[in-house]
Write a structure and sequence with these properties.
Blueprint: H1 34-41, E1 58-63, H2 70-84, E2 89-93, H3 100-113, E3 117-120, H4 125-137, E4 142-145, E5 157-160, H5 163-178, E6 186-190, H6 196-210, E7 216-221, H7 226-239, E8 245-248, H8 254-264, E9 270-275, H9 278-286, E10 291-296, H10 301-313, E11 329-331, E12 336-337, H11 342-345
Parallel strand pairs: 1-2, 1-3, 3-4, 4-5, 5-11, 6-7, 6-8, 8-9, 9-10
Antiparallel strand pairs: 10-12
Helix pairs in contact: 2-10, 3-4, 5-6, 7-8
Organism: Myceligenerans indicum
Signal peptide: 1-25
Biased composition (Polar residues): 39-52
C-alpha cells in the first residue's frame, strides 16, 4: 500500500481528551476560591499560557484565489491583518490566482521552502488535493479553508462556512415574518445554480420554509456578479407581479439585484441578503430600502486559518477546549443580521 493511501503515514489527528482533575475541596460557599479562578483562566493553550502569548517563530504559507469580488478580497485582508498581529509569525503570501496550475506550483514552492504550515483556500478543491497530500506527507500541516479537498488526509484541519445553514437562517427569518401567510410569494435569487454550495444553500432554505408551510414560488440564478444579479432580478420582477419576500444568496451580486429593484420601482416585498457585506449592513441600519436582513457567510475563515496554523505549528492546544490539540473540522455559524443586532456585526462586514 502506498504511503498516500495509508492513514498511518499521515500526520496524526489528536483526539485524546486532556486529563482533568476534579477539585473536591470542602467549601462552605458556592463561590470557588479566587486563586482557583485565576489558575484556571491561565491554563489555556500549551504550557499554562494563553495561545496569543509569543512562542517559537513559525513560517506560514498562504494561498487564496484572486480577489475578484468583495468577499474574496476581505478573506485575504483579514488573513494578512491577523498574521501581522503576531511577532512570532512569518507569513509568506503566494500571488492570488484563479489559475489552478499556478496555485499548485505555489504550494509546491511552500513545500520546497519547508514552511511550518500552509493555509490554503483552493480555487478548486479537487485539483489542489494531490499537492496538499504532498505537503502533509512532507510533515507540513495544511489548514484548508472554505472549499473542501477531496481527501480527508489532505489537510490537518478544515475551516468552513455553513452554506446549508445560510439557507436555514434565511428561511427561518422569512418564516418569522410570513409564517401566518400560507399563500405568500417567496422568491430566491441563487448564485451559480450547479455549484454544490448553491445547492446546499437552496436546500437549507427550502427545508426551513417547509417548517412553516411556505415554499419557494420562483427561483432564478445569477452568477455571483453585479451584472448577473441585475439581469436575473429584472427577469424575476417581470415574471412575478407581486412578491412578499426575496432571498438573494450573495451580497456582492446584490448590488445588481438592488439596481434592478430600484429600476422597476418595486418595494412591496422585503429582501434578505447573503454573506454579510458592509454595504448591506448599512442599508439595514438605515432602514430605507427593501433590505431587512442578511445572513453571514464569514469572510474571516482564512484569518481563523492563520490563527489555527500558528497554534498547530507551535504544538499548542486550543484555548477553551478540554480536548488536546485542535479540531479536525470547524464549521462557522451563519447568523442573521437585522436592524436589532447590526451593530454587533459591522466590524465583520466587507465592501462589495
Amino acid at each position: 500500500m502506498s504511503a498516500r493511501k495509508n492513514p498511518r503515514r499521515m500526520l496524526a489527528i489528536p483526539a485524546a481528551l486532556a486529563a482533568s482533575t476534579l477539585l473536591l475541596a470542602g467549601c462552605v460557599s458556592n463561590e470557588p476560591p479566587e486563586e482557583e479562578n485565576d489558575s484556571m483562566s491561565q491554563e489555556s493553550g500549551s504550557g499554562g499560557t494563553t495561545n496569543d502569548e509569543p512562542g517559537e517563530t513559525v513560517t506560514i504559507g498562504f494561498s487564496a484565489p484572486a480577489a475578484d469580488h468583495g468577499w474574496m478580497g476581505a478573506i485575504t485582508r483579514a488573513a494578512l491583518e491577523t498574521a501581522e498581529r503576531y511577532d512570532d509569525v512569518e507569513l509568506r503570501q503566494a500571488e492570488a490566482t484563479n489559475d489552478v496550475n499556478m496555485q499548485i506550483s505555489h504550494i509546491e514552492q511552500f513545500i520546497n521552502e519547508g514552511v511550518d504550515a500552509i493555509v490554503l483556500l483552493p480555487f478548486d478543491g479537487d485539483a489542489l488535493t494531490e499537492v496538499s497530500l504532498d505537503a502533509m506527507e512532507a510533515g507540513i500541516p495544511v489548514i484548508n479553508v472554505d472549499r473542501e479537498l477531496s481527501s480527508p488526509f489532505a489537510s490537518r484541519a478544515t475551516i468552513l462556512g455553513d452554506n446549508y445553514g445560510m439557507g436555514v437562517s434565511a428561511g427561518t427569518y422569512i418564516c418569522e415574518q410570513l409564517g401566518d401567510q400560507p399563500d405568500a410569494v417567496v422568491a430566491e435569487i441563487q448564485g451559480i445554480a450547479n455549484l454544490p454550495l448553491t445547492q446546499d444553500r437552496s436546500q437549507g432554505f427550502a427545508d426551513a420554509l417547509s417548517d412553516c408551510g411556505l415554499s419557494v414560488s420562483t427561483q432564478v440564478a445569477a452568477d455571483f456578479t453585479i451584472q448577473g444579479g441585475e439581469t436575473a432580478t429584472s427577469n424575476l420582477l417581470q415574471a412575478e407581479p407581486e412578491i412578499d419576500a426575496i432571498w438573494n444568496h450573495d451580497d456582492d451580486q446584490g448590488i445588481g439585484v438592488m439596481a434592478a429593484i430600484e429600476n422597476a420601482g418595486r418595494d412591496e416585498f422585503f429582501m434578505v441578503g447573503g454573506a454579510g457585506s458592509l454595504d448591506v449592513m448599512e442599508q439595514i441600519q438605515a432602514g430605507d430600502s427593501v433590505l431587512r436582513a442578511t445572513v453571514i457567510y464569514p469572510s474571516t475563515q482564512a484569518a481563523d486559518g492563520i490563527k489555527l496554523a500558528r497554534l498547530i505549528a507551535q504544538d499548542k492546544d486550543m484555548a477553551d477546549l478540554v480536548s488536546a490539540g485542535a479540531p479536525h473540522t470547524i464549521q462557522l455559524h451563519a447568523p442573521v443580521v437585522t436592524a436589532d443586532n447590526v451593530d454587533q456585526y459591522l466590524d465583520l462586514g466587507f465592501r462589495s
